[in-house]
Amino acid sequence: MFGKKGDEAVLAKLREGPDEYRKIGVRLHEIIRESAPSLEPIVRWGLPFYVRDGKDICYIKPDKDFIAFGFGEVVNPAREDGATMHPVAWTITGLDDATEAKIRALVEKAAG
Q: Is 26 exposed, middle or buried (0-12, 13-18, 19+ CB in 10 A)?
């Protein structure tokens, strides 16, 4: 369960992916760090996680065919009152201004 901590460890892991997803992963890392600088980046179980006080807030899952971004079930900013199904992860295929803004808002809410 213990992993490598810090920005460089996370960036090194994200840079292992295919070029298209490597760029998305690095940008996601930047968005998370800008939106919630108090979160600690760590590589655990082969995935970049962002934690606070030992609690998983969000993660990035790079793959050869996609990159996923998600939140822990306990701290889920996308949870909707009254809903019976709640998203916890998204497959990211590209980043435009609107997508970055949505990710930023979710990270800020989860870390808040």
A: middle
Q: What tokens appear for 51 in the block?
A: 């934690």
Q: Which H/E stretch holds residue 2?
A: none
Q: What is the 3-state secondary structure (H, E, C) of 42-98?
A: EEECCEEEEEECCEEEEEEEECCCCEEEEECCCCCCCCCCCCCCCCCEEEECCCCHH
Taking each helix axis from N to C end, the angle separating 7-14 and 19-35, rounded to the nearest 10 degrees, works out to 150
The answer to whether the beta carbons of residues 23 and 60 sit under 8 Å apart is no
This prediction has a pTM of 0.89
C-alpha span between 41 and 3 (Å, rounded) = 10
Distance, CA of 53 to CA of 95 (rounded, Å) = 29
pLDDT tens figures, 95-104: 999 999 999 9
CB atoms within 10 A of CB 49: 20
Domains of the chain as residue ranges with CATH: 4-111 (3.90.1150.200)
